[in-house]
Amino acid sequence: MSAAVPAPRRRRISRRARRDALVFLAMALPNLVLVGAFTYRPLILNIYYSTLNWTLGSPSATVAGLGNYVRFFTSDAAGVVLTTTAVFAVFTVGGSMLLGLLVALSLNTRLPGRTLARASVFAPYVLSGVGVGLVWLFIFDPVYGVFAYVLRQFGLESPRWFNDPTLSLVMVIAVYVWKNLGYCAVVYLAGLQSLPTDILEAASLDGAGRMRRFWYVSLPLLGPTTLFLLITTILSSLQAFDLIKIMTPTSEGTRTLIYEAYVQGFGAYQRAGYSAAISVILFVILITLTIIQIAWVDRKVHYA
Amino acid sequence: MSTKVMTSSTARPDAPPVAAGSRRSARRPPILPTVLGGYLPMLVIVLVVGLPLAWMVLSSFKQVSEVITLHLRVLPQHWSFANYVEAFRTAPFGRFFLNSVLVTAVGATLKVLLAIHTAYALVFVRFPFKNVIFVALLVALMVPPQVAILPNYVLIAGLNGLNTYWGIIVPSLGTAFGTFLLRQAFRSLPISMIEAAEVDGAGHMARLWRMVVPITAPSIATVALVTIVSEWNEYIWPLIITTDPNLMTLPVGLTLLQNNESGPAGYGVMMAGAVIVILPVLVVFTFLQRYIVAGLTAGSTSN
Asked: b/e per residue, B205-223, with b = 16+ CB within 10 A?
């Protein structure tokens, strides 16, 4: 497109470029507009809403400034919500990664049946959280549930999952791990299968046993996989909603950030501004983790 | 599901000894370690996943007296559809199912079409700032949809979209995930082939639908399946946007069912509802799990 190009040719190129641009817009614009309207727009609006004293559905709102944030952080709720969120994240992430790694190690064989086992362990990950939550509510029922029945055979009494906030949280964490560990297992398995066999064989020739090979060779080589899983599972754990909502409808014991934002905004109080403030806090946490992921992990993952 | 593994593990002794044979030290596979170290963990894994789901299916066919009992039986004494009948009676379950099918079909189709066209434009059509646009999509991929719920609700409610199909479908149509995955697939195509088609006079649409789409069909299938599954399971948005049972999707309808059928007497009906929402996905997953697993784990170092 330099000035040296003779005029008629330049016009032809620019006409062509214009046609290309039109084609591009015709093909990509609908999607881009939708992403802009329903992803970027709410992101910015949320920040604005969070500065308002506003009841959802009400035509009027007053400016609250940072009042909603102050109210959240100075209330008792902040301690409960942030602790619950952290506990939920630590145990769901730790649980699914640890069990996922164990499953991956046991499936890293050539035995027939491993494909079925791999598919089985992944299956809960794709199932409706609502459906899965209902099934486990039945299983955990302190009187009529299978779990209580099994405990009774050993003369034990079932914990009262539904009435104790701590036990409710434990229950939801357990089910979340059941549903999500398959994702970690499959990613770890892929990591294990791409380990360089010559290094493992060299270690084996040097007399390293199975455990030593795992601790000193496999696990360090799985470092990037572990880091990737750590960030992605923290991100999805912070967004967990379906299971929590269906298994603890009263949010007793399970007031994580996302659930609190939902309850405050769409529950009985309809505090839109306050709910938006909690969403913004959640978003800041999520985006920080994402930036860490891009800075650390994605160097090993190529997007292009 | 569990029975399949049981038979394969009991059939194990006369199975050909291929598995551990590749290990240098052992000429013949040692049976006991293979069973303990190889098959036992696999069996445990399949049972831990399979038993709760089997329990769901079995319980859905039991009568109330067999559900609310301290003396559990594994199999229903009389297989009964009463729970399903009850689920359809207390809530418009047929309607929920149709709504879910409709929302999933329309939503997923539009999403995949949008992803295909955007990805094609990003890879094969000349346009300034394409990289900026791509990065903007990549960032959108990282914005959790839950954070956008409130402003989207206010917008859709303001446009009278509460309790409408378009209100359920439209806000999630913009797709960064599908675009991103398909862009990767399209970029792996040989440019020379596309250029040859251009020389032959094929327009963009012809190139897209006669060349790019057929060749990258597996990637498109992956995106389509992942999209279908996530549309079917989608919960928080339809939950917020629908209050009229006639427009609720299955997961939202199940919440309604849970509220109506509170107490142990409702477990059978709830299991019937859970079967209706879980089974279709389980069937699809059973046959096409390779694509679904690949799509959902895309982005990990393995890909």
From this structure: eebbeebbbebbeebbbbb
